[in-house]
Design goal:
The protein is an alpha/beta fold and 499 residues long. The protein has 13 helices and 15 strands. The strands form four sheets. A seven-stranded mixed beta sheet has the order 2-8-7-6-5-3-4, sandwiched between helices. A four-stranded antiparallel beta sheet has the order 11-12-15-14, with helices on one face. Helix 9 links the parallel strand 5 and strand 6.
Length: 499
């Protein structure tokens, strides 16, 4: 997978604030920051929502490096939501079929198709292979209902050992749904070296080889949520297929973050959420990909009541639009991913997604990835430097980066493993200074510069504050809650022992 390195990637000459400002000035995506509402430091501390003026417009902006958890709100989101509410108010049920000349939004019935068209380039698919629907976990269940078809010989599901809990729950419940036992049917890939957090491609392939004759499905993350590791999707997909195994991908931390070519890579299915790098709001409507080879509908026997298509959990909204309102009870799916829809998607929930996708269309995933590689490398360089003036003893000894150093093996996120016991104090100090990142106990801080709105100056400011917070906390001066003794040092005992 190419990183698409740009001239911006050659950064980190003198590590000064002036250098960061120069990098911002030469950033071709810098203008897109104005498309987003950046909360101010005052906003973060305020106990009320009501205030005069534009949020974040006058006070000093916070340093928001948490787009891997929740993306910031695009400025145009409020306009799109307001337009939808106004259409509903003025047209009622007619809003399903009638668009307005002065609105950026289509009629209610066409919102999901419009969102799929806009999202398709981001995941490297044709519009017919994408459906905007449900939530990630619900879509994962819908996909496994179709693609996990265990037999007596092939019944196992291979996942990674530190899969996001919801994925693990979903897989276990699907296994039990087929009257199988997770202890027999669930294979969790652990790192070959238990002291390491990441998985090598060769190790993943070896586990697939080992269980190939009994495996029905492989389900892996495109970007691992804890470490930020970007797995080699095309290589792993091809290897699973060489054994006749279906493979699906959870792209929650990959979509809008790294370049994807789901169709060309022959991925069977994929699911994702839209509230991280797609900036569509908390609990936003999600999406899924189904390769065109799995979405075909054979209607040659329609007159005799026989239609051939891939098994799925069927619902009204996945039915042929031409006959949907005839209210018949013979299900004929829409060809492609849309045929996997179940219920009417929430039109209101699609509006924030469309607002964000409009911003993606002002650039390209290639350009976004180029900046991402550069700004994350800059973050890494600043974190790893030693001998910083004014740092007695140095901060770098107090943490280590567990995300792969190779830009081709990571997205925007760096996961920083702190010295045991520092997390509570460091996070309290960061919050006090108006820095927004997230934590994963017992000792990890996740930092993700989002290329659409984060700047090199954001990164410089963060590292300056973070390093000082580490030193201050290590000296016992921070006022934040220290980690419980039960957590202290668990990471150093090895990856497998903290699961």
């Amino acid at each position: 997978m190419s990183t698409g390195l740009s001239p911006l990637a050659q950064v980190g000459r003198n590590h000064t604030k002036e250098e960061a400002l120069e990098l911002d000035a030469s950033d071709p995506l810098h203008h897109l920051r104005s498309e987003f509402i950046i909360p101010s430091k005052e906003d973060l501390k305020s106990k009320t929502l009501s205030r005069k003026g534009d949020p974040g417009a006058t006070e000093e902006s916070c340093i928001y490096l948490c787009g891997n958890s929740l993306g910031l709100q695009p400025r145009r989101t409020a306009d799109r939501v307001a337009a939808h509410l106004q259409a509903w108010a003025r047209k009622g049920v007619f809003g399903h079929f009638k668009a307005h000349d002065d609105s950026q939004l289509p009629a209610f019935l066409d919102l999901d198709d419009a969102a799929a068209r806009h999202a398709a380039p981001i995941v490297g698919a044709s519009p017919s292979e994408v459906s905007i629907m449900e939530t990630l976990s619900a879509n994962l269940h819908l996909m496994m209902a179709s693609f996990y078809r265990p037999t007596k010989e092939k019944y196992k599901v291979i996942i990674e050992g530190k899969a996001f809990p919801s994925d693990h729950y979903a897989v276990e419940s699907q296994i039990r749904h087929h009257n199988l036992k997770p202890e027999d049917a669930l294979i969790a890939i652990e790192p070959a070296d238990s002291t390491q957090a990441t998985l090598t491609t060769s190790h993943i392939l070896s586990i697939i080889d080992k269980h190939a004759s009994t495996t029905a499905l492989v389900l892996l993350p495109g970007v691992q949520y804890y470490t930020g590791q970007y797995l080699d999707i095309p290589t792993i997909t091809a290897h699973a297929h060489s054994h006749g195994i279906t493979i699906g991908w959870d792209l929650a931390h990959a979509v809008g973050n790294v370049e994807l070519r789901l169709h060309d890579w022959n991925v069977d299915f994929a699911v994702w959420c839209s509230y991280k790098y797609l900036n569509s709001g908390p609990g936003a409507i999600a999406g899924l990909f189904v390769h065109e080879k799995h979405g075909q509908v054979d209607k040659t026997g329609l007159d005799s009541g026989h239609v051939e298509f891939r098994h799925r959990l069927s619902g009204w909204w996945g039915g042929d639009k031409a006959t949907r309102f005839q209210m018949g009870n013979k299900f004929v799916p829409i060809p492609g991913a849309a045929g996997f829809q179940v219920g009417n998607p929430c039109a209101l929930a699609i509006c924030p997604l469309l607002a964000s996708l409009e911003i993606f269309e002002l650039t390209s995933m290639s350009a976004i990835r180029k900046k991402s590689v550069a700004i994350t490398k800059y973050l890494e360089d600043l974190l790893c430097r030693n001998g910083v003036e004014g740092e007695e003893g140095g901060a770098a000894k107090l943490y280590q980066i567990i995300t792969p150093a190779d830009p081709a093996e990571r997205g925007a996120q760096l996961s920083i493993l702190l010295k045991p016991g520092l997390l509570g104090g460091v996070m309290a100090e960061l919050e006090e200074q108006g820095v927004v990142v997230d934590e994963r106990k017992p000792d990890v801080v996740r930092v993700a510069p989002a290329p659409l709105y984060n700047t090199f100056s954001d990164v410089w400011e963060f590292v300056d504050i973070f390093r000082r917070a580490c030193i201050k906390t290590d000296k016992g001066l921070a006022q934040g809650e220290q980690e419980p003794a039960a957590f202290a040092g668990l990471e150093s005992k090895g990856w497998s022992q903290i699961k």
